[in-house]
Amino acid sequence: MNPKNILNADLHCHSVISDGTLTPEVLAARAKANGVELWALTDHDEVSGQHRALEAARSLGLPYLTGTEISVTFASETVHIVGLGFDPYDAALVQGLHDTRGGREERAREMAASLAQVGIAGAFEGALNYVGNPELISRTHFARFLVEAGVCRETSEVFRKYLTEGKPGYVPHRWATLKNAVNWITQAQGVAVIAHPGRYNLTTNEEYALFAEFKAHGGQAVEVVTGSHTRQEFIKYAETAQEFSLAASRGSDFHSPDESRTDLGALPPLPGGLTPVWELLGHRIHA
Ligand code: AMP
Ligand code: MN
Ligand code: MN
Ligand code: MN
User: Fold this and answer.
1) pLDDT digit string (tens) for 239-266?
2) Is 229 exposed, middle or buried (0-12, 13-18, 19+ CB in 10 A)?
3) Global pTM value
4) Are 149 and 47 in contact (CB under 8 A)?
């Protein structure tokens, strides 16, 4: 393996178990082919793909950490907390994720009703065609349907015009609390990571509170290098990691060859002077 800071770790991506378009097995092969040296599959609010991902990684000789990405409501915003290296059979974690997924179908029906009001019919059934896991219908599946229906040219356009606050198809939702999400992960022997902090619409004070409360609950890391950050944000959140004494993570947030800007394993290395999150997780890596 390479020196620790330039290890080609990719600790954030999605499969058909949530809103990605590839299976865990195809993702594992793609990660390996792209030179990834440590991989985690982090499906939204789900761990049911972990066994498949682990087995696929093992057969390729690709070191693996278990992963998930939990939807959290904080300061009226949706914030994502990645968990890494946990026991995927931990009962409280599995139950907590099950509860977090619970409201998705009803929310999806309300989203479809909202879209129908602006003349877009059949969105629930249309989105469902893209769903791989019936418990995990997400805005991404609606976005794919809106492209198919010719309403938008690509999914990024959908999220500018629909499905986001103030736009047709947006339905507010209450996800897990920050405290519960961090506790489910840490009590299952994992490390909690603030995902892509540059993406949230938080004020400076709210962002400070997010980091401070996350740390107080036992959170230990933050994504610094992610497909969702600009180069300036790599630098900004490297400084935030140091300010809060958090370890740093790196992950593409890859969803699909057709939609994702950043492929598996294709990110720059972590900036120097940070503790890579995998340094905290050596004993949890499936080699
Ligand atoms: P949900 O959990 O149903 O609210 O869906 C959230 C998912 O929508 C995220 O995980 C992304 O995959 C996708 N998403 C949200 N905002 C955007 C955006 N601006 N561009 C592309 N995808 C987005
Ligand atoms: Mn997603
Ligand atoms: Mn996310
Ligand atoms: Mn993600």
Assistant:
1) 999 999 999 999 999 999 999 889 999 9
2) buried
3) 0.98
4) no
Q: Is 139 in the pocket of ligand 1 (CB under 6 A)?
A: yes
The response to whether residue 262 sits with its C-beta less than 6 Å from ligand 1 reads: no
Ligand 1 proximity of 183 Cβ (cutoff 6 Å): no
- Residue 95 near ligand 1, beta carbon < 6 Å: no
DSSP states along 168-235 = TT------B-HHHHHHHHHHTT-EEEE--GGGS---HHHHHHHHHHHHHHT--EEEEEETT--HHHHH
CA distances from 86 to 82, 99, 119, 137, 177 (A): 11, 18, 45, 24, 19
Give the model's pLDDT for residue 1: 46
81: CA distance to ligand 2 center in Å?
12
- Mind listing the domains of the chain with CATH numbers? 8-100+174-284 (3.20.20.140), 104-161 (1.10.150.650)
The minimum-distance atom of ligand 1 relative to the CA of 138 is 3
80 lines ligand 1 (CB under 6 A): no
How far apart are the CA of 194 and the centre of ligand 3, in A? 10
Mean pLDDT across the chain = 97
Measured from the alpha carbon of residue 136, the closest ligand is: 1
User: What is the C-alpha to C-alpha distance for residues 63 and 286, in angstroms, rounded to an integer?
Assistant: 6
